[in-house]
Amino acid sequence: MSGLAKVDRDYSAGPCRRPARFARRANGSAAGVPRPAPDGPDSKVFDSPLGWHLGPIRRVIREFGLALITLGVIVLLFIAYQLFGTNLTEARNQTQLAKQFGTTVATGAPIKTVTPDSVPDALPATPPGGAVEHLVIPSIHVDKFVVEGVDEADLRRGPGHYPGTAYPGQNGNAAIAGHRTTYGGPFFELNGVKPGDPILITDLNGRTWTYIVHNQEVVSPNDVSVLDATTFPQLTLTTCNPRFSAAQRLIVFARLQGPPGVVESPAAVSAGASKTLRHDGSSGNADTVGFGTSTNLGSGRSSAWAPAILYGLLAIGTWLLARLVSKRSRRWYRGGAFTIGIALGLIPLWLCFENVSLLLPQSI
Q: Does residue 52 surpass a pLDDT of 80?
């Protein structure tokens, strides 16, 4: 009864008071301190979700910071595209070239013994962008199909044969260019070849020619003398140097093991070779002379500036629209709207990256 009496006395002392923590929840502050009126001068403190009022200067700083973060993310995405995205494109193209090359070799003329009186073997004509050679460098694990041409569109598919130079097995300078770090980086480790290393090239007639590395050197991008015709069968490989830079060109020279074959260039290529300029300005047959003074060992395509800027602006517009829609959406819809906006923005961003890549030297 004493405990019950004590409880009675506690309640009889007066009305029950609510603890201070409940008072703070009700009033928005400690007990006895009134909460600012919604329309009072202090109401701006609660306008921002972050708990303070963002004035014009703070808003500018915030938007500038977000712009820098976005720019950094775009740069990282472009690096990832160059190192990994282009590899996917090249791998898909090489798969197609392997099928086309195998079909051409299987349906071509049989290999015959070469004698001094042999009739030249004409290499089968290839479709635009098709494979003309199969290049294997065992010492650096290169196994690629070579296309005709050294434009950026050609080198996206694999190493490219310089038009106007000799073909494998022919007497003369057969020159091939390849990317160093992007689009599969076929010549990524080209600096690792040593004198005496073999280089195997199979032509469209199914004949494999073996070249032995003689030496390598580094030249400027404008030194096209390495592409000049020679009086002996030579293979010249070109790529950018050093890695991730286009400041120089790495050149590897190899000589044919054994006598040259009797090989005639594909009809379509021979007809389109016509003439070009020598270094001294005189004209001559493109099958026997070097490239003109306007030629270099790989440069960007200036016509890609316009589409690169256009797709870049489209990507920025998509990003801004996504932010605007997400801000005006209900809280539980913002994440979805923002995610969809980013996904749509990646499409023009990818196209922008492709055109920016065209501005870079072909063999970088």
A: no
